[in-house]
Amino acid sequence: MATHLITGVAGFIGSSIARALLDRGEQVRGVDNLATGKRENIAEIAHSIDFREADLLDLEAMKLACRGVDWVFHQAAIPSVPKSVLDPLGSNQANVDGTVNLLIAARDAKVRRVMYAASSSAYGDTPTLPKHEQMTPNPISPYAVAKLASEHYMISFYRCYGLETVCLRYFNIFGPRQDPTSPYSGVLAKFITQMLRGEQPTIFGDGGQSRDFTYIDNAVSANLLAAQAPAAKVAGKVFNVATGTRADLNETFEILKKLTGYSGTVKHAPEREGDIKHSLADITLAREGFAYEPKVNFEEGLKRTVEWYRGEGKAAGA
Ligand code: UD1
Question: Around Cβ 200, how many Cβ atoms within 10 Å?
Fold first, then answer.
């Protein structure tokens, strides 16, 4: 049976990929240094996976983790724009040095393919919408630069060593288990939990900024499809993973009012440094490359996410 390694397995996206693989009866190994990942995310599957607490910066640990592995889903990262503005070195170490270590380990272990959690932030604030993969990247934040640098490493390892790598540029993934508690948390996780508690959310800027918010199940399915696609179609390539639609923060707030029952207003604060105004993906390449199709749209995704946080009591600040 094939073995799948997930880096960042205790994170929101990594743990979601793990559950999907287990549902298919696959064998899963996971590493996480628990810097941003949480044991509770893998609590109910802990007995079914080979979990190793390890840091990507530990090359020997990565070599051990890659031993006997067929597919790697590299989700581990410090996934925050503002945090990278405060600590560019830390961002670079986790997001670039860690990736290079993993690639060396995967190459030496003769892994069949590595799927990489790349980021839409690579596009930066280019005015062209939708963003397509042929556009020249224009990263703004250190986080975006690090994520783009790692894409180039992915492609380089395919070109130089024949290690099959696929870069999946995630556009604002959201859904159950996304951590709402850090000041760097994704906006939807924050807004939903705040509004469920009856607390006033804050919009940075005028709320006109828009995103191609992508429900987690879509990102998971992109990973599984990319792993199975013919190498000629995906290896050494970059793909947007999104929905091809966007919503701005003001309209999102209105939808969330209905879903959460929050009756208050929103407060405004200055625009965030390194922020981009609009983000929307062209998903043609992913459709052609591995038959990707967004299965859950924005509103349905919001509904499911609100229900999850409500049920988990996350809104109580757990
Ligand atoms: C960016 C990247 C994304 C990456 C993510 C990691 C883009 C398009 N996307 O997301 O690929 O995975 O970083 O962090 O660059 N906001 C508020 N109030 C809040 C929190 C956020 O108004 O309480 C605003 C932000 O200023 C921003 C928007 O909401 O304009 C989205 O922010 P966030 O969810 O943090 O993600 P991005 O920075 O877009």
Answer: 12
246 with 289: CB under 8 angstroms? no
Domains in the chain (CATH in brackets) are 3-174+215-244+278-296 (3.40.50.720)
Q: Is the CB of 279 under 6 A from ligand 1?
A: yes
Nearest C-alpha to atom 21 of ligand 1 is from which residue?
Answer: 187
pLDDT in tens, 210-244: 999 999 999 999 999 999 999 999 999 999 999 99
CB of residue 120 inside a 6 A radius of ligand 1: yes
pLDDT (0 to 100) of residue 249: 98
Contact criterion met (CB below 8 Å) for 57 and 8:
no
Sheet containing 237-241, strands listed edge to edge, beginning at the edge strand earlier in sequence: 50-53, 27-32, 3-7, 71-74, 113-119, 164-170, 237-241
- Closest Cα to atom 8 of ligand 1: 121
d(Cα 28, Cα 19) in Å, to the nearest integer?
A: 9
- The residue to mutate among 148, 187, 218, having the most atoms of ligand 1 within 8 angstroms of its beta carbon, is 187
Active site residue 292: no
